[in-house]
Specification:
The strands form 8 sheets. Strands 1, 2, 3, 4, 8, 13 and 14 form a 7-stranded parallel beta sheet that branches. Strands 20, 21, 22, 23, 26 and 29 form a 6-stranded antiparallel beta sheet that branches. Among the domains are: about 160 residues, Orthogonal Bundle (Isoleucyl-tRNA Synthetase, Domain 1); about 150 residues, Nucleic acid-binding proteins (OB fold (Dihydrolipoamide Acetyltransferase, E2P)). About 10% of the residues have low confidence. With about 675 residues, it is an alpha/beta fold. The structure holds one RNA strand of 77 nucleotides.
Length: about 675
RNA sequence: GCCGGUGUAGCUCAGUUGGUUAGAGCAUGCGGCUCAUAUCCGCAGGGUCCGGGGUUCAAGUCCCUGCACCGGCACCA
């Protein structure tokens, strides 16, 4: 049995998964399930990346040990993936002993190969900022933010990886294996990057406790991204189980976001070359998800969609289909509730779902559900073969959207076949033989379509197969070769049941469905499956829900990570009323405005990013709210001593705070 | 200002290395069917492929240029 090892990127645990991360897992899951269907022995690995300083900080803020925080986040992630029916075989965490063993092994190998050397990072260090400063950041040899503090010349011991040594081998590899990076556009970017030269990279941090110690310098920990990449090999036994490693490595496919392509096609392969390990066969950089055209990001709450919510609304399978079929794999994709609901109605309610219903209904009505094999209908059988081949070719080429479309063409072909052969007319005319044949073939067209769609909609397809009298214990038992063609022998008992995907009516689609419905678990006995819908009836929009036009709100903070401030902490912020004396645009900037403001006792210069929303002249005389005790910052060469308060949603123009009655400049706000 | 992306039917988008008459779904109009969740099937209308210039026997596709929108950074303290 051929093997297939694929991975997704492991996820940072500093926030809960959103639809963008879910998209990657769904796409990878579709590929994994397709490979199983195609007869491969599949290993599908996902996991969490836990050794970042951010995680360390977040844990501290939540009053937790880092590992306890990570444990909690693991549950969050597992819950999300479970609600989306992600069929990973293994879930690796970078804090696990097996991963530490893998990292240690790689570090040891690179060290032995002479590809790690000790270097020092030297530079001006500003104690006030707790950071190294570049020469260009210093003014008269001093940190502009802390002009009274003498910067210190510091050295930090670091270990460097000789990445530069692998420039030519990487270029050779890319030329020898054009399929290594996909899609194509990313490959060109990397070629340009390599042609421009590579610099060695630092792989350690001194003086940190949260991380994996370097075997040859226990005082340093491995830098987080270097650590993270190794998970792909440590998950299959690097450093712990040579036999397992030999079985699965190299990976057939890394599915990652396009933003981290260069880590995966430059640094990671260079590490493997240095360690004497084979390179992964393919790296696929998928696109980003947007919400209603806006970039989905943590700092923009309106764009964050909780994948479990989205799945709960119409079902995990409809969501999986939408993301797989409507987004060209490799391109950015947009999610909107309206489009999701539209595609749900068209593809699932009207076409596939209705086909299931009409086939089972006719079988029951004309034959008490009992169908006997009949000769294949030529056109439909040919369509099944053609579309199944196109489907497999597309899947092999990772054109997931094209593959879905092929499967749906078979759904269309089956609907056409039914219309053309009019079984209801045959029934009326008493042409039993012809009727038997049409019913059998229609059910076969549908069955093959369900087999093809099973990687995308596993639970639903299992239900469809059960209703068609061809139950499987697990869709993983299906095989393309055997099951994705029209069969011409046997007898079956079909069962009609509730609509799989009830059509959403216009007024229901206008409002988000706030009721969280969980998918009815599919029972193990096919009989029950046939009797129970895999997806509950769409919840009717209640009058109350109909008034709500906003989508479900952004992800709530993780339980237990209470980030609220005490009153003392809040009082540290010195908010003041200020009156604008002068305002002028900062030359060559897009949105910066330089203000001088009256604070009662003093006059301050503040630079604010409000130039896109306000004309500077209109600000003069206006009373605004500012933060008065911020550390100064330099913006476009101008020192800003404070911050103007404004309502500012990401992507929207800021709106200044206004006072209904004018307070005196300098008045404290609290 | 720099870097990147996008611009194709009313809407949402496909369009491989240049190659017949530029496609799909939705929406619209007409017709058919009644097994089915008012579903399905057929037909039709609808396009300056953002503008301009160029290369070529041939350009939605390649090159130059302009415009518009989006994203990132410089600058949101």
């Amino acid at each position: 049995m051929p093997r297939y090892y694929l991975t997704t990127a492991i996820d940072y645990v500093n926030s809960r998964p959103h639809l963008g991360t879910a998209y990657e897992k769904i796409a990878a899951d579709v590929i994994a399930r397709y490979r199983r269907l195609a007869g491969f022995d599949v290993r599908f690995v996902m996991g969490n990346d836990e050794h970042s300083q951010n995680v360390f900080r977040q844990a501290a803020e939540a009053g937790l040990e880092p590992i306890a925080y990570c444990d909690r986040m693991e549950q969050e992630f597992r819950k999300a993936w479970s609600s989306l029916d992600i069929s990973f075989d293994d879930f690796i965490r970078t804090t696990q002993p097996r991963h530490k063993a893998g990292v240690t092994e790689i570090a040891r190998r690179l060290h032995a190969a002479g590809d790690i050397y000790q270097g020092t990072y030297e530079g001006w260090y500003c104690v006030g900022c707790e950071a190294f400063k570049q020469d260009k950041d210093l003014v008269d040899g001093r940190c502009p933010l802390h002009p009274r503090t003498e910067p210190q010349w510091l050295k930090e011991n670091n270990h460097f990886f000789r990445l530069s040594k692998y420039r030519q081998p990487l270029l050779d590899h890319l030329h020898a294996h054009p399929e290594f990076i996909q899609p194509e556009s990313r490959r060109n970017e990397i070629l340009r990057l390599l042609e421009g030269g590579l610099e060695d990279v630092s792989i350690s941090r001194a003086g940190q406790s949260w991380g994996i110690p370097l075997p040859f310098d226990p005082g340093s920990v491995v830098y987080v991204w270097f650590d993270a990449l190794i998970n792909y090999a440590s998950a299959v036994g690097l450093g712990t189980d040579d036999e397992l490693l030999a079985t699965w490595w190299p990976a057939d496919l890394h599915v990652i976001g396009k933003d981290i392509t260069r880590f995966h096609v430059v640094i990671w392969p260079a590490m493997l070359l240095a360690a004497g390990l084979p390179l992964p066969r393919r790296v696929f950089g998928h696109g980003f998800m947007t919400k209603d055209g806006q970039r989905m990001s943590k700092s923009n709450p309106g764009t964050i969609i909780d994948p479990s919510d989205a799945a709960a609304r119409l079902g995990a399978d409809p969501l999986r289909l939408f993301l797989t079929k409507e987004i060209v794999f490799g391109n950015d994709g947009d999610f909107s509730w309206g489009r999701f609901e539209e595609k749900y109605n068209v593809d699932l309610a009207n076409n596939l779902g209705n086909l299931v219903n009409r086939v089972t209904a006719m079988a029951e009505r004309y034959r008490q559900g009992r169908l006997v094999a009949a000769p294949a209908a030529e056109t439909l059988a040919a369509a099944a073969t053609t579309h199944a081949h196109a489907y497999a070719a597309a899947m092999d080429a990772l054109q997931l959207d094209v593959a879905c479309q092929s499967a749906f063409r078979l759904v269309d072909a089956t609907n056409e076949y039914i219309a053309a052969s009019a079984p209801w007319a045959l029934a009326k005319a008493g042409q039993d033989h012809a009727l038997d044949r049409v019913l059998w073939n229609a059910s076969e067209g549908l069955r093959v379509a369900a087999v093809l769609l099973s990687p995308v909609m596993p639970a639903s397809c299992r239900t469809i197969l059960a209703r068609l009298g061809t139950p499987v214990a697990d869709v993983g038992d299906l095989r393309l070769e055997r099951d994705a063609q029209v069969h011409v022998s046997g007898t079956r008992q079909l069962t009609r049941a509730d609509a799989l995907w009830p059509r959403l009516e216009a007024d229901a689609t206008a409002a988000p469905i706030s009721t969280k419905t969980k998918e009815t678990p599919v029972s193990d006995t096919p009989k029950d499956v046939a009797a129970t819908p895999a997806v509950p009836a769409a919840p009717a929009a209640s009058p109350a829900a109909a008034q709500v036009t906003a989508p479900p709100s952004a992800a709530a903070p993780v339980e237990g990570t209470d980030t609220r401030l005490s009153i003392d902490e809040f009082m540290k912020v010195d908010l003041r009323v200020a009156q604008v004396l002068t305002a002028e645009r900062v030359p060559k900037s897009k949105k910066l405005v330089k203000l001088s403001v009256d604070l009662g006792s003093e006059t301050r210069t503040i630079v604010a990013g409000i130039g896109e929303a306000y004309e500077p002249e209109a600000l003069v005389g206006r009373r605004i709210a500012i933060v008065a005790n911020l550390k100064p910052a330099k913006l476009m060469g101008i020192e800003s001593n404070g911050m103007v308060l404004a309502a500012s949603a990401e992507g929207n123009r800021p709106i200044l705070i206004d006072f209904a009655e004018p307070p005196a400049p300098g008045t404290r706000i609290r």
